[in-house]
Known about the structure:
The complex is a heterotrimer.
Chain A: H1 7-26, H2 28-54, E1 63-69, E2 79-84, H3 86-109, H4 116-135, H5 139-157, H6 164-195, H7 200-203, H8 207-210, H9 216-232, H10 241-244, H11 250-259, H12 264-271, H13 273-276, H14 280-301, H15 307-327, H16 331-358, H17 376-390, H18 396-410, H19 414-439, H20 447-452, H21 458-473, H22 481-484, H23 493-502, H24 517-543, H25 547-554, H26 556-563, H27 568-616, H28 623-644
Antiparallel strand pairs in A: 1-2
Chain B: H1 3-24, H2 28-48, H3 52-77, H4 91-109, H5 128-131, H6 134-143, H7 146-167
Helix pairs in contact in B: 1-2, 2-3
Chain C: H1 4-24, H2 28-53, H3 57-87
Amino acid sequence: MESLLWLIPAFPLAGVAINGLFGRKLGDRVVSVIGPGAVGAAFAMAAASFIALRGLPPAERLLQQTLYSWLPAGEFSASIGFQLDPLSMTMVLVVTGVGFLIHLYSVGYMHGDGGYARYFAYLNLFTFAMLLLVMADNFLLLFVGWEGVGLCSYLLIGYWFEDQAKADAGKKAFIVNRIGDFGFLLGIFLIFWTFGSVAFSDVLPEAATRLTLGGDLAFWICLFLFIGAVGKSAQIPLFVWLPDAMAGPTPVSALIHAATMVTAGVYMVARAHALYEMAPQVLALVAGIGAATALFAATIGIVQNDIKKVLAYSTISQLGYMFLGVGVAAFSAGIFHLVTHAFFKAVLFLGAGSVIHALHGEQDMRTMGGLKPKLPITYWTMLAATLAIAGVPPLAGFVSKDEILWRTWDGGHSVLWVIGFITAGLTAAYMFRLFFLTFHGSFRGTKEQWGHAHESPWTMTVPLVILGALSVVGGWIGLPAALGQPLGGIANRFEGWLAPVFEAGEHAVHEPHAIPPIEYGLMTASVAIATLGILVAYWAYLRSPDLPGRVVARSRGVYTLLYGKYFVDELYDFLIVRPFYALSRFAWRVIDDGLIDGLGVGGTGALVKRGSRIVSRWETGYVQGYAVAFFGGVFAILAYYYLFR
Amino acid sequence: MTGVDVAFWILAAISVGASLVVITNRNPVACVLFLVVAFFALAGLFVTLHSHFLAAIQVIIYAGAIMVLFLFVILLLNLGQQQWFDVSNNPLRVTAVVFGAGFLALLVGGGISGVTPTVRGPAAGISPDLLGSTGAIGAALYTAYFMPFITIALLLLLAMVGAVAIARRER
Amino acid sequence: MVGPAHYITLSAVLFTIGVIGVLTRKNAIIVFMAIEIMLNAANLALVTFAMTIGDVAGLIMVLLVIAVAAAEAAVGLAIIVAMFRHRETVNIEAFNVLRG
């Protein structure tokens, strides 16, 4: 099994090669089989690896394969190697499983598009890079995958590149990501400088010995790594690219900007947990930024009218929850929310795609409404997902989000808990606002749109159903002890699965222990506020639809601020983008054209030309002139000799 | 003031004067003829130095053969009047004259005339007449300086062949 | 009393005249003649010294110089003839083909 690990990323890579090079010739039907098929094969391999991993005793759950030594350079060496421990196994299953379903969905959604083969090639390439990222056994290979997914994000956001705005969105994503990547790279350099290696097996066990708790080195390493995560996972202040990324095809938004790529930052923090545990200030920063981002994004999402933009801000908000989780050292809780989020967010995006597909490209919720009878399957699956994200028990979202909130409170971070609590209410509110505006009430679009609206083909609905079911039951593998024990000793299997990775040598989580009553109290509170949010949405958008209008009229200022996304983009444009343009223009006109080309290249040429023109005047070809010079020399020597001896 | 001294001064004046004419005259034929005069004067100077043989050689070869060759070439090429020697026109020429004058000043002022050789050659004690005679030169030429003699012969052959080859009319 | 010094000075004067002639005249043949003047000046110096120190080698040298001058004149004039055939003139200013 270990020697076959490389097959997991190899299948999508083969898909890229075939679809990318020969896709146009092979035709759409073949491409439709190869694209999802490659990821499906990878999922099969992953499942087999999972079974193999489960067969090992918990302390030894590690499958490793080193392909070859990639960069031996003096004291530094990095290899292309894969490792599967419970953490990366979880990520691989999510990436390949959800990925496969989204590939299948794409067959229906992208049907008839001109660049069909190119789309699947890019999507497979993304899957390959993401698998590299989660299966890497050293920081450098992880970074390769990190960059690779960034590249594919750019390619896929700007997929319809003929539209300048969409191409610009892709550029924006890549550039903002790059800023984070710079920080990440600095972190890797520091790691190498401290540990002499970048392999996980060398760095992570040594973290406690080489780094002092709360010391400068640990601080800077973790901070730099976190900057990378901030860029990739769209937290404050590098979140601005994600809403623009909605310019890409909806399945892309589902896969990359909901389920997998944006979660790479969370994975990376969890993977480097040994380092982060030595830098509590950075962990506090992580939790703080996570909570702040969660609230911040929720306040923006509640006033947006584009269905995909709402989901984008929702993703940013939920990513904030994940960072809050890992920030309070609840690593398995953060990863758990990552998994459940992948399920329900994928449903939400794919469902939105289904709606957009039915309305032939309409994305503004103000012209939707009452679509329930037209899109039944979409309706029920989206309802499940919306309930999940709102945190209604016993669906998946409730279990994972609540676990994070409980661990936050338990860790003593009451302020952060309050922020998370409020955000949970907002989440329920804006998600159900989306749901009600889209599927209930009366249809506000045109007559032809209503006539054309129809349910999506099986390639699109089957993934919706599967993921919808997972959104419902997916949380049950991670039931906290608070719920599991009373229900007959059901253990938190998810936490137990990840325990060997996160708690080196601690006691098994399976032992029953006393549950403090406050845990139940907090649980009830979060359910309450979720219900409150749903009721508010119901009242505002179904019972008295003019209520939102009146609220907006009352608070024009606040509304403008929220609707304008707090004008962060404009701020960045003013502070950063414009000065950079000016600097670049200066560098171009003055330095490159003027100095280097004009003075340097042109100047050197002109100098040589002028010099040689002067010198060539001595070449008269006139022999007597030469003779005079001769004689002058003789005379000079003689003079020197006679006069000065 | 002996007769030899008088002869020296007269011959010196003639040679310098003739040389000056050579380098300033417009007409090439006139230049050749004046050069012949200068060579004759030099031959005379050789006589005053008691090297009779060389004086004869000078007249026969230099004035007799080489100058005639020059004359032949001038007449062959049918050269008309050439450009007047004009110093002020060309800065190069001014430079040349200045250098020349300076050179001469250096040589004379530097004491070339005060050179008194201390080395005494093998025939130091012999009378100059004997030294410059044909016999003495011949004796040295065919014994001690035989190699240069043969080499010169070869050189003359080469020169002959070379001259013919260069000046041949191309077909 | 006329001694070696006078002859040497005369030699120097003749030599300078020859040099100025080489550097100044435009007619190639006359330049050649000036060269002959220079050679003769050298000959004069050689003879003077040979007689002064009593070594016959000087006289031999003069003989050789005259022979070489003859050879050189022959070849040089042949070249001038060839030059003339090329350019219809012996003005050395016309032969500046190597100008750059």
